[in-house]
Design a protein that fits this description.
Elements lengths: L18 H10 L10 H7 L9 H6 L7 H8 L11 E6 L3 H10 L6 E7 L3 H11 L6 E2 L15 E4 L6 H10 L3 E4 L7 H14 L3 E3 L7 H11 L6 E11 L10 H4 L3 H17 L5 E7 L13 E7 L5 E7 L1 E12 L3 E5 L10 E7 L2 E5 L8 H15 L7 H20 L3 E2 L19
Parallel strand pairs: 1-2, 1-4, 2-3, 4-5, 5-6, 7-10
Antiparallel strand pairs: 7-11, 8-9, 8-15, 9-10, 11-12, 12-13, 13-14
Helix pairs in contact: 7-8, 8-13, 9-11, 11-13
Length: 441
Amino acid sequence: MENNEPTNTNNTPAIGYNRRRFMEDAGIGILAATVIGELASCSSSAQSVNGGKSLADTISVNLPPRDALSEQKLSGPPALLPPQKRIGFAIVGLGDLALNQIMPAFGSSKYAKPVALVSGHPDKAQKVAAQYGIAPKNIYSYQNFDQIKNNPDIDAVYIVLPNSMHEEFTIRAAKAGKHVLCEKPMANSAEQARRMIKACKDAGKKLMIAYRIQYEPHNRLAMKWARDKHFGRVKIIELANTQNAGAPGQWRLKKALAGGGSLPDIGLYCLNTSRFILGEEPEMVMATVYSTPGDPRFKEVEESVLWQMHFPSGALVNATTSYGTHKSRRYRCYADNGGWFGLDPAFDYQRLQIEASQAQGNLEVKQSPDMGEKDQFTLELDHMAQCILENKTPYTPGEEGLQDHIIMEAIYESARTGKPVKLNKIDKPDAFRGSAPKDEF
């Protein structure tokens, strides 16, 4: 979970982002929506390394020019649904993530719109509603949340609360007849995740977990390269997601609210991204957990986790996450045919960078394709909206979140026992995945 509301009581809406700006963004922010789609031809038309092409040849073919974004703006926006036909979302929780990322993301959405707010702070909710043109009658508290069942404007909810609250509000939303987009981690445990999945299935409603990395173009290209063996078979992946946690007292450092420390919060990116890139599930994990003695931040949750995962293909993953070091958000995939590729930064909201390197004789040739940029939260919102409109299963459904919880619990067990932990085999690792995003490479 990247943010919440209860511990951000002093937050105010982003200054200057009013309704007029929102409407302008709705028309302008989407103008680059088709640029990254051209990358499909980059991988499909480029010959494999074994074909004798250099790395410069294989990843530069059909990439959009550096000024493609400006050219796309001149050509006009792609088709989008009129407001009355878009999927209406209620945002549950108005913390930093909701205010600074999710609400602005609606400005570039083609299929989704914000229609309701759920908050424990009425004054804040009223300010946000005024900025985004949301009717005052569509402001709810956590206590009267269940009344959303009587509001036809609301098709789905986006839950942006502390991890421990995900289960409650997912189940309440499903019972109210609304689809659910839930921030990650999905819950505090695999058992909670199972109950969330059951509640949505019983209600006939869709459940999607907000794994934004799986919808982001740079990471999707890395996935494509790995699964297509573009540089050979990926044998090792190294990943790191670290940061220096703030002062004691924040909800992320309380086990009852967060479920754990760095692992479920930022380490989850390493875990989920490696599964996404390889397209298979680990069969064994080994882990070490460490917290600096005497650091008051880590009385309840862990500071650092180092773990390895073994996959059926023979691929090895080495991952590091920590709340006690300077930030690093990167990964690198090492293949067996003289090349590597990865992202640095890999998990940020913006300005992600993909790079690749290939040996050519005694030279090491490096490339960093210029791919442009898309709003990751817009991609999530639009995918969920399209799945509702077309009655399809989201690409990252509840089962995807459950699998991460199963693996995280094995990581904790390995650290506790000092022994490797074997995982139950999944015959078809992608069996629980739903419809691929429209911009599939």
